[in-house]
Amino acid sequence: MSIDQSTAAKVAKLARIKVEDDALPALAEEFNNILGFIEQLNEVDVEGVEPMTSVTPQRLKRRVDEVTDGNQQPKVLKNAPDAREGFFAVPKVVE
Amino acid sequence: MLDLTYELPKPKVISGAKHDWELVIGMEVHAQVSSNSKLFSGASTKFGAEPNSNVAFVDAAMPGMLPVINEYCIEQAVRTGLGLKADINLNSAFDRKNYFYPDLPQGYQISQLYHPIVGEGEVLVELGDGTARNVRVERIHMEQDAGKSIHDMDPNMSFVDLNRTGVCLMEIVSQPDIRGPEEAAAYIVKLRQIMQYLGTCDGNMQNGNLRADVNVSICLPGQYEKYQATQDFGHLGTRCEIKNMNSMRFIQQAIEVEARRQIAIVEGGGKVDQETRLYDPDKGETRSMRSKEEAHDYRYFPDPDLLPLEIEQAWVDDIAANLPELPDAKKARFVADFGLSDYDASVLTAEVDAAAYFEATAKGRNGKLAANWVINELFGRLKQEDHDITSSPVTPEQLGGIIDLISADTISGKIAKDLFEIVYTEGGDPAEIVEARGMKQVTDTGAIEAALDEIIAANPAQVEKAKVNPKLAGWFVGQVMKATGGKANPKAVNQLVAQKLGE
Dihedral of the CA atoms B423, B428, B431, B437 (nearest 10)? Predict the structure, then answer.
C-alpha cells in the first residue's frame, strides 16, 4: 500500500488539519514510512496469539450509575470562541 | 406458552409505470438507555435542562479526560439483548468512528463496530389483521449520542447544546426483513413495548429517546424470496438510508416517498445511488445529505482509551433469571388464563402498567368482564381527560368491586356505568355507594309486577299490538326499567313481561 499526495491531502482534510501543498510530499512520505513499519510487523506470525490490549492484565474499569458531574456551564463554555445564551455559537450548519 | 403460529403479512406492492415493485426495509433503531448518568461520564441525562449544564469535561472532550464506562448501561444493553432472545457476547470492544461535526466535540463517536455486545436476535412483529412476521435482529451495540444543534435561534449561527453528548444509546440493527411502511411502524412499536417492559428505554420518541434510520430498497416480485433463500444481497435493489426520524407517521411517509422515488429512477433507466437521505415532511420528499457523503470515511479504529469489555456468563445468567414477563408471553397467558380474545389481550398488554392494572382487577373474577370494563369504560374515560393508567382515579380494587356487584346481580349493567362515574369522580367504596344511594337492582318480583301492571293498564292499545307482534314486548321492558329508575333486574322484567302479555 502506498500513499500518494492526494490521499495525504484527503486524510488531512478529514482530520481538519491544514497542510500547505508544498508540505504534502513530505507528509505522504511520512505516512508511507509508518505503513512500511506496519507491513514489517505484519510479517510476524501471530497465529493463535491473543491480541494484547494492556501491558498489565486488567479489567475495564466501571463506575456506578450516579450523577457526579456537570452543572458547570460557565467552565464548559469558557474556551468557546463564541457562546450565547448558554450555547456554543458556531457558523451555520444546515442540511 | 401458547404456540403462536401466524400467517405472514403481504409485502407492500407499489405499481410503477411499467412494473409492480415490492419494498425491502431494514432499520437501525437508536434507543436511549434510561440511565441517570452518561455512558462514559458522571453528567446527568435529564431531559430539558439548561443548555450545556449536563456536561462533564469528558463530554466536552477537554484534553486529558478519560472515559469510564457506566456499569448500569452495560446491564441494560444485555437485558435488551436477552429480551430480543439474542446472543450475548461476553467479549466486546469499543471503536472510534471519526467524523467532524460541531455537536461532536471529540471528533469521533465511541461505538462498537467490530465487536458489538449483542449478536443475533429476533422480534415478533404483529400486525392488526392477525398476520405477523419474525424480524431478525443482526446486532445491538452501545454508543454515545451526539449533541444537539439548533438552527433557528440566529440567522447566521447555529447554537450547540452538549447536554445529550455522551448519553448511552443502544443501536438495534435489523436485517432487511421488513416489507412495508406499516410493518416498519409495527416493528418500532414492538421494540418500544419490549424495552418498556424491560425498563431499558422509556421509548419517548418526542424527546428523541427513540429514533430510527431506515434503509429502503425496491425489488421486483420474486427477488426477495431469492434473497431469503441465499442471503445474497445481490438479489435486492440498491438501498438508501433515511436518517434520524422520530415520528411513526413520518417514518411511514418517508418509506413510501423514497420507494416511489427509486421506482421512478429505475423505470426511467437510471440507477439508484447508495446514499444517506433526509426526509422533509413539509415538502413530502427525501433529499440527499451531501455533507454526510463527503465525510463518510469514518476511519474506524479500536478506542485506545478503553480496554475490551469483558462480562461474565454468571452475570448474564443472573440478569436473564430476573427478566420480567415479556409482551408475547404475557399476551399468551392472558388469552389462556383469562379467556381473552387475541385483540383484547393485545390492547391490555400494550403497556406494562395497563397489563398490571388489568391483572389486579381480573384476579379471582370473570376475566372477560374485567377486560371489557378496563378497555371500554376505564380506558375510554381516562382518554377523555388525557390521563394515563398510572394516574387513574379508580383503583383496581374499586373497579373489581363494581365488577363483583355486577356478577352478584346486585346492580344492573346500566347502573354499573352510573356507579363507575361516581367512583371515578367522587371516589369511595362501590358496595357502600350502592347501599347508601339505593342503587341496588330490584329483584323483588312483586315490585316489578306492580309497575308492569300499571303500565299495562295505562296502555291497552299497546297490549293488543304486542299480542300480535311479540317484538313489541321490548317496549314494555323499557317502560318498566324507566319506572324503576333502571334498577329492575332485566332478567326478571323480561320474564314477567313475556308472562303477562302471553296471558
Answer: -80
Question: CB–CB of B72 and A82 under 8 A?
Answer: no
pLDDT more than 70, % of chain B = 97
Q: Write down the ipTM of this complex.
A: 0.90
Model pLDDT for residues B197-244, shown as the tens digit of each residue: 999 999 999 999 999 999 999 999 999 999 999 999 999 999 999 999
Q: Which helix (H) or strand (E) holds B344?
A: helix B342-349
d(CA A38, CA B422): 80
Please state which architecture CATH assigns to domain B445-502. Orthogonal Bundle (1.10)
Cα distances from A30 to residues A34, A37, A38, B295, in angstroms, run 6, 11, 13, 23
pLDDT at B2 over 50: no
At residue B284, what is the residue type?
G
CA–CA separation, B358 and B389 (whole Å): 10
Residue A92 with chain B: CB contacts under 8 Å: 151, 156-158
Q: Classify B306 as helix, strand or coil.
A: coil
CA nearest neighbour of B358 among B341, B375, B383: B375
- Closest Cα in chain A, distance from residue B294 (Å): 9
- pLDDT tens per residue, range B307-343: 999 999 999 999 999 999 999 999 999 999 999 999 9
> At B41, is the secondary structure helix, strand, or coil?
coil
DSSP A48: T
User: Over 60: is that where the pLDDT of B368 sits?
Assistant: yes
All structural domains of chain B with their residue ranges: 5-294+307-320, 325-412, 445-502
Please calculate the CA angle B229-B234-B240 and round it to the nearest 5 degrees.
115
- Least CA distance to A53: which residue of chain B? B307
**CB A70 within 8 Å of CB B54:** yes
Q: With CA atoms as reference, report the closest residue to B319 among B30, B99, B77.
A: B77
The confidence score (pLDDT) of residue B292 equals: 56
Whether the pLDDT of residue B430 is over 90: the answer is yes
How many interface pairs between A and B have CB atoms less than 8 angstroms apart? 135
Nearest to A50 by CA among B183, B308, B233, B278: B308
For residue B271, count other CB atoms closer than 10 A to its CB. 9
| Residue of chain B whose alpha carbon sits nearest to that of A88 | B160
Q: Do A65 and B72 make contact, defined as CB atoms within 8 angstroms?
A: yes
Residue B205, number of CB atoms within 10 A of its CB: 17
pTM: 0.87
Asked if residues A69 and B45 have their Cβ atoms less than 8 Å apart, the reply is: no
- Residue B336: phi, psi to the nearest 5? -75, -45
- DSSP of B148-170, one letter per residue? EEE-SS-SSEEEEE-TTTT-EEE
Q: Is A43 on the interface with B (CB under 8 A)?
A: no
Average per-residue pLDDT for chain B:
93
User: Does the pLDDT of residue B300 top 70, yes or no?
Assistant: yes
Give the separation between CA B389 and CA B359, rounded to whole angstroms.
Answer: 13
